[in-house]
Amino acid sequence: MSRKKLDELGVSAFCESMAMMIQAGVATDEAISLLQSERELGSGVLEQGLQVMKTQVDQGYGLAAAMKESGIFPDYALQMTEAGESSGRLEDTLFRLAAYYKDQKTIAEKLHNAITYPAAMLTLIIAVLAVLLVLVLPAFRDVYNNLTGSLAASSYSYVRWAYGFCWFALILMLLLAVGLIVGLLMWKNGKRDAVERFLSRNRTCSEILQNMGMFRFTSALSTFLASGDMQDDAVLKSLPMTACKPVEEKLKRCIRRMEEGHSIAQAAYDEELFEPIYGRMLLAGERSGNMENVLNRLTGLLEENCGNLVERLIGTIDPLLSGVLMVTVGLSLLSVMLPLIGMMNAIG
Questions:
Q1: Are residues 120 and 245 in the same domain?
Q2: Rounded to the nearest 10 degrees, how much is the dihedral formed by the CA atoms of 27, 30, 31, 32?
Q3: Looking at the structure, do residues 66 and 138 belong to the same domain, yes or no?
Q4: With left for phi above 0 and alpha for psi between -120 and 50, is residue 2 left, alpha or beta?
Q5: What is the reported pLDDT for 155?
Q6: Cβ contacts of residue 79 below 8 Å, gap of 6+?
Q7: In this structure, what DSSP letter does residue 274 have?
Q8: Residues 281 and 227 in one domain
Q9: With a cut of 50, which residues of the chain have pLDDT below it?
Q10: How far apart are CA 55 and CA 223, in angstroms?
Q11: pTM of the predicted model, to two decimals?
């Protein structure tokens, strides 16, 4: 069994291809064979997985069991495919999975850009400060020492302030860079909760995390409901998909209300799981028997809101880091140029 998983786009492409072929009346084993012929059986993750899947379906196993045996699909995709098979809505479930993983990839790329840009700016600022401290400021200091005999006792002590400011800025940027690296390592090594607690102190970061959690929940809930699950089961299965503690706490309160006899729409509205306008949309959708379409609409709105929040965060970080760079360089150069200006005025 392959240990390496398909990425989001790979899962999305597979699910969409299978859904289209099933929609066209192609049997599962034939659909997998067609995908094999299209991939020309190389040594990639999907190619190896398709070989295992073909063997499994030839032995009489279903698509979900074959996907599980291949070991290349995430648990969520396996759960949803199994639910779609058992409910007889496999085609619709696969289309929803394709859209879900495509949306996940889009949000992941936006978050990656939100981290990459500050990291690049921090690297640039650190490099510029290092050049100032190692090459530029020492050159001016040596010149002024030769002209005045002692920089510390001269009127050119501005240079000392430039040194102090550059060192302060460099240490601050290094601390930020180390914090970013440590945060990424903690995120990847299973300490995501600690990172989320720290990020939640910032309002924009907290909104991004909660919106992402709600996006994952509504997408999963919509797919489970479309697969034929009852509301209670669908909510319970969707709960682990949120990966966000504040959202999970709200959902647990909603589940307790549902155990008292309330519907998911009413429980979500009472516990303010969504913003009021979204909560009313869900209530209206439930009362009109159009809840799945409303959930799909909410999923799209939450994805769009996540993107807007990420762009707003980048828009805040961009001028802040650019300002630090310009102020640091400007003040440093001004500090070393003031003595030169004074000398030129004295000579002139």
A1: yes
A2: 130
A3: no
A4: beta
A5: 47
A6: 237
A7: S
A8: yes
A9: 1-2, 151-153, 155
A10: 28
A11: 0.69
